[in-house]
Structure formats: structure tokens, C-alpha cells
């Protein structure tokens, strides 16, 4: 029970309000008295309260109106309603709308104090429980992974088990599918959670700088090395180093990385000696590393070292049932980042359309689209016209098969529309589109000539 709580007393009879204020103040609480429901609503919107004690029958704005506003401002805020008319119907209605308790006038002051203290204690426990749940989610890292599909539930279970090991992990998945979030969850769920989590994208730096970034360098090791640098391996000592897009690491660095994995030692650029590091490696790639090994572009021994445990992140198209939940999550985030936007919701047909879209950019593409709709929207609810206006350029508004559900179209037209749709999703790359479709690229060119340019449909 808090030693001092902030309480709002609402009664259009000033004497009653003041009579309640005195014992509550004597109990150590800070008490505000509103002389009308309208005044109470104004205060609820501008001040924080721990409990509300409100008369039910008041002119213009009554206790049920105050209750509704209190629930809107803070769903956990306990509201005790008072009335001289102790009708059962009023009590039932008040409780249905979320009132904590119902007091019938005349009442004893000790009874009021008892219920106020009970309400405060329950509120404290509820807030404490929510805080612990939030902290647990943050600590586990799984709270950042969103989805209830079978594929995601399987992934959650694997993350929880794999996190307990120090073995290297190879996270596989398409671009934008959330590989770094999985890496963070693996770190936060494991014994290294108190240590640092350091991430680097192997494609984000020129190859000449990547070695220094990873392993560090001594002063004067090369032109421009005016100061020494520890490197990301040393920064991650005792924690986790996440190597994103490991498939693009140059061969000379692959050998050096293998040495660190085998010996736990590294040598900074220009250094005379080596130093030991204790780092768990989590690597990620969207590429087929087995194919790169066969091509001689990735070391087989390093692949086997990294691929002790392999986790596959499902692309968004394989877990479409998660799209409504993800869209609402990204909508809330975008609204927080853009508080002046009028957008507050997505129309049901928009959510349904989002669930039908192919999402080659996966979760990242969905997040970016929702943010774009929030930034550019001018109405509270995003409708289909706005969605189709701001979908990715060059991409048809609707999947051809979804469009065909609305009207019967000739098979040849449907085939042409689908080929055009795939070409558009591949950014106009007809060779890639042909590979995905399992046809020869000459087939696409023939269809273009016959149909007058299907890629421009």
C-alpha cells in the first residue's frame, strides 16, 4: 500500500466532498475535490490519480461519464461510485462498466477508507505485476519477437533452448526477416545477458576497414591510424558478437575469424602479440552458404564452425497470420514517432489486403509501409485508396490471384498478369523472375511481344 496516494473526490455537493477529503488527508493521501463531473474529467486528462471516489447522480456529466473517462485515461485506475439511490440496476450497470466498487449513501467513513485502501493495494499489485512482466520480456529478448503462428512458436522454443549454450549459431533468413532480433533474443536469454551485445554488418564497411573494425589496430598500423582501436571482438568480450551477412566476408578475414573461433585469441592489426577473448559468435546470412562453399567463395572449415546450430527465420509470406498483429504493433510505434499524425487505425480491409501482399522485403518492408501510411495519412483511419497510393512503386496494387477472386478473367490474362507481377517484384529483373517462375526468360520476352508489354501492366 503506498504511503501517500493521489485521490480525486467528485461530488456536486461541496459539503460531501470536503467531508470525505478530511479523513483521506488524515490517512496521508493528497486529495483533490471536483465540484462537478465536467471538472473531474478535465482533471483526469491533466493529472495522475491512484483512485477516484465519485458521486453517481450529478447534473449534466454524471458518475458513469466520469467512470468512462477514467477508464479511457487509465484502464487500471480504480473508481468507487457513491449514490443515495442504491438501486440494484445502477450497481450492476456501474460494475459492468468497470467500477471497482459501489457505495450507498449514507455510509460510514471507515467503510470508505477501507475500500479506498483495498483499491490502492490492488492497483499497486497490478502495476508491480505489469512491471515485472515487462522487465521479464525485456530481459528474455523474446518480447521483441512478434507472432503467434506455428512457425514463430517453433522458433521461440528453439531460441529458448539454444540460448543456454555458448555454441556458435548461424541464423538464416531473407533480408528484413528479423535476424538481428533473433540474435538479440539469443543473447538476452542466455548466461551472457549481463555482457555486451555487439553487432556489425559485414557488408556495411569496405573490406579494408572491416579487419580493423573487428580485430582492432595499434597506433601507426596503417595510414590514418593515429590512435589505437580495440576492435569489436574486444568490445564484445564476455558477451556476444553478431556478424550479420557473414556470407559477404572476404576470404582473408574468414581465415582470421576461424582462428579466433578455434583458439579464442586474436591479433590486432599491427600488433606484435595476441590476446584472448571470450566471445559467443552468432552469424547471420540470407545467402546459400553451402552453395558458396562449393563455389570456393566461403571457407568450408569456417562454415562448419559457424553452423553448429542453425536457426531459420520464416519469411513473412510463410506466416501471414502474424501480419495483423505486426501491423498493429508497427502502427503504435509509428504513431509514437509521429505524434502529430491524425492516423489512429487501419481499416479492416486494409489489414486484409496487407495479409495478401507478397512482402519480398519481409517484416522490414511491412514496418516501412505502415510508417509511410502514418506519415502521409490525413484521416484517422487508413483506407484501401491510401494503401494502394503509397504501396511500393512499380508493384501492382493487388496480387493477381486476389484480384481474380473479385471477377472471372481469361486464363491467358491471369497468366500474363502473374508474370508481370513477378517481374515487378523482382525490380524488373526478368532473368530472376524467370528463375522464380521456373520458365525460360525467352518465354517472358515472347509474352511481352504477344501481349504488348506485360511488364508494364
From TrEMBL:
InterPro entries: AAA+_ATPase, AAA_lid_NorR, CheY-like_superfamily, Homeodomain-like_sf, HTH_Fis, P-loop_NTPase, Sig_transdc_resp-reg_receiver, Sigma_54_int. GO terms for molecular function: ATP binding; sequence-specific DNA binding. Keywords: ATP-binding, DNA-binding, Nucleotide-binding, Phosphoprotein, Transcription, Transcription regulation, Two-component regulatory system. It holds the Pfam family Response_reg. GO terms for biological process: phosphorelay signal transduction system; regulation of DNA-templated transcription. The keyword Transcription regulation applies. Residues 145-375 form the Sigma-54 factor interaction domain. PROSITE patterns: RESPONSE_REGULATORY (PS50110), SIGMA54_INTERACT_1 (PS00675), SIGMA54_INTERACT_2 (PS00676), SIGMA54_INTERACT_3 (PS00688), SIGMA54_INTERACT_4 (PS50045). The modification 4-aspartylphosphate is found at residue 55. The keyword Kinase does not apply. Residues 6-120 form the Response regulatory domain. PANTHER family: TRANSCRIPTIONAL REGULATORY PROTEIN. This is Chemotaxis protein CheY. It comes from Archangium violaceum Cb vi76.
Amino acid at each position: 500500500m503506498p504511503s501517500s496516494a493521489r485521490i480525486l473526490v467528485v461530488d456536486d455537493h461541496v459539503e460531501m466532498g470536503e467531508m470525505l477529503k478530511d479523513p483521506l488527508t488524515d490517512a496521508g493521501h493528497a486529495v483533490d475535490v471536483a465540484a462537478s463531473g465536467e471538472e473531474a474529467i478535465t482533471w483526469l486528462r491533466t493529472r495522475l490519480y491512484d483512485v477516484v471516489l465519485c458521486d453517481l447522480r450529478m447534473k449534466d456529466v454524471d458518475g458513469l461519464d466520469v467512470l468512462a473517462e477514467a477508464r479511457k485515461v487509465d484502464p487500471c485506475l480504480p473508481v468507487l461510485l457513491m449514490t443515495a439511490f442504491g438501486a440494484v440496476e445502477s450497481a450492476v450497470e456501474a460494475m459492468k462498466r468497470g467500477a471497482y466498487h459501489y457505495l450507498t449513501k449514507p455510509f460510514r467513513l471507515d467503510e470508505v477508507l477501507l475500500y479506498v485502501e483495498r483499491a490502492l493495494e490492488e492497483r499497486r499489485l497490478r502495476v508491480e505485476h505489469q512491471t515485472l512482466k515487462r522487465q521479464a520480456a525485456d530481459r528474455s529478448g523474446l518480447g521483441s519477437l512478434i507472432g503467434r503462428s506455428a512457425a514463430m512458436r517453433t522458433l521461440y522454443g528453439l531460441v529458448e533452448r539454444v540460448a543456454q549454450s555458448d555454441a556458435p549459431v548461424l541464423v538464416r533468413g531473407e533480408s528484413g526477416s528479423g535476424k538481428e532480433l533473433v540474435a538479440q533474443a539469443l543473447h538476452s536469454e542466455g548466461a551472457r545477458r549481463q555482457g555486451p551485445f555487439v553487432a556489425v554488418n559485414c557488408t556495411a564497411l569496405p573490406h579494408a576497414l572491416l579487419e580493423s573494425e573487428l580485430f582492432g589496430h595499434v597506433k601507426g598500423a596503417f595510414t590514418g591510424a593515429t590512435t589505437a582501436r580495440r576492435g569489436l571482438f574486444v568490445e564484445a568480450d564476455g558477451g556476444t558478437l553478431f556478424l550479420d551477412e557473414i556470407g559477404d566476408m572476404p576470404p582473408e578475414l574468414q581465415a582470421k575469424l576461424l582462428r579466433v573461433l578455434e583458439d579464442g585469441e586474436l591479433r590486432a592489426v599491427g600488433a606484435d602479440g595476441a590476446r584472448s577473448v571470450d566471445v559467443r559468435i552468432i552469424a547471420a546470412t540470407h545467402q546459400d552458404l553451402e552453395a558458396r562453399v562449393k563455389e570456393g567463395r566461403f571457407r568450408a572449415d569456417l562454415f562448419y564452425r559457424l553452423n553448429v546450430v542453425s536457426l531459420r527465420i520464416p519469411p513473412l509470406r510463410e506466416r501471414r497470420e502474424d501480419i495483423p498483429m505486426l501491423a498493429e504493433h508497427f502502427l503504435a510505434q509509428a504513431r509514437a514517432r509521429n505524434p502529430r499524425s491524425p492516423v489512429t487505425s487501419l481499416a479492416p480491409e486494409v489489414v486484409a489486403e496487407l495479409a495478401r501482399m507478397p512482402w519480398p522485403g519481409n517484416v522490414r518492408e511491412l514496418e516501412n509501409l505502415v510508417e509511410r501510411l502514418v506519415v502521409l495519412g490525413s484521416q484517422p483511419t487508413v483506407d484501401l485508396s491510401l494503401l494502394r497510393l503509397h504501396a511500393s512503386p512499380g508493384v501492382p496494387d493487388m496480387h493477381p490471384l486476389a484480384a481474380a477472386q473479385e471477377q472471372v478473367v481469361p486464363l491467358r490474362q491471369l497468366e500474363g498478369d502473374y508474370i508481370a507481377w513477378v517481374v515487378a517484384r523482382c525490380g524488373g529483373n526478368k532473368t530472376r523472375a524467370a528463375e522464380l517462375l521456373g520458365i525460360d526468360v525467352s518465354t517472358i520476352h515472347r509474352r511481352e511481344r504477344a501481349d504488348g508489354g506485360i511488364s508494364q501492366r
